[in-house]
Amino acid sequence: MGTQDKSPATTQLLAPEITLQPVSVTRRMAASLPHLREVAAQKGLKIHHLGAGYPHPEVTDPRGFLAHKKAYFDHLTQAEGLNDPDVLPEYLREAYAYTDTLGPYQARLAFARVYGSDWQVEIDPDHVLPTIGATGGISLSCSVFERPGIPIAYITDAPTYAGFLARATLNHKAVIYSVEMDSDGPIIERFREQIQAARNAGYFVPLYYTVPDGHNPAGFSFSEQRRREIIQVAEQEGILILEDAPYIYINFAAADKRSRPFFSLAPDRTIHLFTGSKIGLPGPRVGFIYTEAILEVADGLHVPLSDLLLTEASADLLLHNPEALRGFEALLHDETMTLRKSLWPVAEEKLRVYRENRSIMLELLQQHLGDYADHFSWTHPEAGFFTVFTFKQNQVTTDEDFIARLVADYGVVAIPMYAFYPDDARLRNPGAGMHQLRLSFCFNESTGEARRKDMREAVTAFCHAARVESGLPGLV
Ligand SMILES: Cc1ncc(COP(=O)(O)O)c(C=O)c1O
Predict the structure, then answer these.
(1) Among the three residues 331, 366, 391, which one is the final residue of a domain in this structure?
(2) pLDDT 10s digits, 188-236
(3) pTM, full prediction
(4) 163 lines ligand 1 (CB under 6 A)
(5) 161 C-beta closer than 6 A to ligand 1
(6) Which of 244, 285, 388, 441 maximizes ligand 1 atoms within 8 Å of its Cβ, making it the mutation to test the pocket?
(7) Using H for helix, E for strand and C for coil, what is the string for the chain?
């Protein structure tokens, strides 16, 4: 068969409105990694992971979770007062049956109590809706505002989470107006200006999307003061804050120094996205969306946003996986099957590893590069998985060639920052992110002492590369 042969379906369906979405740089990197690995291996180089944003294998071994879930499910059987093993417990029947769009009430109630107590919010379980991780929450939020089919502008940070950009711009009528940041968060004057600019250009501006704790990819958390200023602008301008909070518990600040999330400061201004991916496991895809916002919609009606989200979700994925949600409910109970007062003790098991990795990274960056403060800087993340590393004299351009060389010549995998800047930010400043890398300290392939050793080797290899590429003496 010649290459001109095409199936009738391909030639007959004219779809001129559909465009091919560009592949993200992280995907492209993942695709090119096997080849680069080979090149590095041929040179006898070890591969150092400072790129992937995955939870660490040491804290995502599912066996402990499965044992606890089984104990919790046994506890539910006993609570039903069943002695006859031939009788099917009700919770089990429900866990494998069709559920509704709200998912099992018990899971929402347990989540509302524990999360509400951690963040001092009285959460109404009927305003909590399950999502397919935070990803599902982003999608659902966009979906609600896409429904009228009008041109939309989303406000977000420059840089911002690539998953948000990808989902938001799936809608051809949506554009991004981004806001540059300083070390406290988005610059307030720019925030206000961008909302105005979007409106002047005829767009409906529903929300500002952000990751205030452990910002991915910016590698820092917003100050409390800036959070309050953002809320003030959102209130004055009549827009919502879409708060993506995957790292809310991956927090390195002392308990009394942690900033409060937006949903705790302004629940009626915020759409909050919780995910079980980092505090639990990413595979079960458990998340919740929560908001107390009331919207004025067509005909002057005032409607809880949670109702709009629910109707949107019921037309979209319709049914949830009740077993996964009740499995997450198990995590919200301790070993005695009592509802936890807090998720912080669960977080602590994870923080042990991330805190260590973070310290290794920050200490070694300081040790090997601290004398060159005019050449290099990096963020000190109070939460999350990442630090942003800057070549301050623009001596290194962190383009795709550089990223490939970093793997092939030094065995170091890191992510270029430019890819996280929305198009409008790169138009304003074509150099945005072009001298920066996102270094992640969350992931490598070993555990315990081997993990610490691999982490040290990875950061040392990176420091060596940063020095050599900047024309400074390498580490011997
Ligand atoms: C900011 C941000 N949002 C969303 C996600 C995706 O989370 P989930 O697994 O809950 O869909 C991630 C994952 O790394 C993230 O960093």
Answers:
(1) 331
(2) 999 999 999 999 999 999 999 999 999 999 999 999 999 999 999 999 9
(3) 0.95
(4) yes
(5) yes
(6) 244
(7) CCCCCCCHHHHHCCCCCCCCCCCCHHHHHHHHHHHHHHHHHHCCCCCEECCCCCCCHHHCCHHHHHHHHHHHHHHHHHHCCCCCCCCCCHHHHHHCCCCCCCCCHHHHHHHHHHHHHHCCCCCCHHHEEEEEHHHHHHHHHHHHHHCCCCCEEEEEEECCCHHHHHHHCCCCCEEEEEEEEECCEECHHHHHHHHHHHHHCCCECCEEEECCCCCCCCCCCCCHHHHHHHHHHHHHHCCEEEEECCCCCCECCCHHHCCCCHHHHCCCCEEEEEECCCCCCCCCCEEEEEECCEEECHHHCEEEHHHHHHHHHHHHCCCCCHHHHHHHHHHCECCCCCECCCCHHHHHHHHHHHHHHHHHHHHHHHHHHHHHCCCEEECCCCECCEEEEEECCCCCCCCHHHHHHHHHHHCEECEECHHHCCHHHHHHCCCCCCCEEEEECCCCCCCHHHHHHHHHHHHHHHHHHHHHHCCCCCCC
